[in-house]
Amino acid sequence: MKKILVPTDFSDQASYALEVAYHIAKRAQSQLILLHVVEDTNVASMHYTGEIDMPHMEDRLFMMKLIEKGKKDLADLSSNSQYADIIVEQQLRIGSPYHNIRDIIQEHDVDLVVMGTKGSSGLEEFLIGSNAEKVVRHAKCPVLTIHKKAESFDFKDIVYATALEDEEEQCVNIVKSFQSLYGSTLHLLRVNTPNNFQSDKTARPELEAFAKRCNLQNYKIHIYNEGSEEEGIIYFAESVNADLIAMATHGRTGLAHLLTGSIAEDVVNHTKRPVLTYVIGKNK
């Protein structure tokens, strides 16, 4: 884990994410990349080079003020003495936060994105979504979402919710790297729902076989019954006081996403615990 990207809008949620990212970077001896995006609906993603091409002087002046403020805030954050023991790189971009995050991941070969999110619910969740949701759905690297100020920076208990798919092994390797870094106990979880139920007699051997195939160490197997996968993952994580929830996602888009939704995105939206996600099937 060499490079960790932390997008920031200087909000409380972003500061919570930076705090977690710093402690991961310190432990893993990683570099932090701090990204601030000055939003402009006219462009998707653009480096700041000092020239702003806008037809109206008022718009140009307003954008320049936003850029100068962003530069100052980014410089102040990067030079904070708290982060003196790690390498911190600054990136200021213009356009869409999501598109710029995507570009930075590719350009800098980012290993992990750590970002804050408020979560969402109801109509807002259905109509708008958030930048965090888009990144979770499409990122080419693992994404760790942070919802609140961390009470601890040790991920001692990790819940890994599995559907036992072969492609999940990509995600499991990432979870194992966190487990190795923190000496964690891994809770391998299957959630039974009314529409997708397996008896312990059937499910437990399948979970054991999955663990063996993935060469898991220091793990426990759990089967939890709940009305939905999302609720089962969240409630089980609460029951073991998990420090981290980890799960794979298919990153569905378009009509498929509208019809089926995403369990990973639902969990990101509705839990207060850190969630580590990885898109499988698109990252080969």
TrEMBL record:
Question: One Pfam family name from the record?
Answer: Usp
Among Gene3D superfamilies, the record links this protein to:
HUPs
InterPro entries per the record? Answer: Rossmann-like_a/b/a_fold (IPR014729), Universal_stress_UspA (IPR006015), UspA (IPR006016)
Q: Which SUPFAM superfamilies match?
A: Adenine nucleotide alpha hydrolases-like
Domain named UspA: which ranges? Answer: 1-146, 155-276
Regarding protein family, the annotation reads:
Belongs to the universal stress protein A family.
> Would you tell me the protein name for this molecule?
UspA
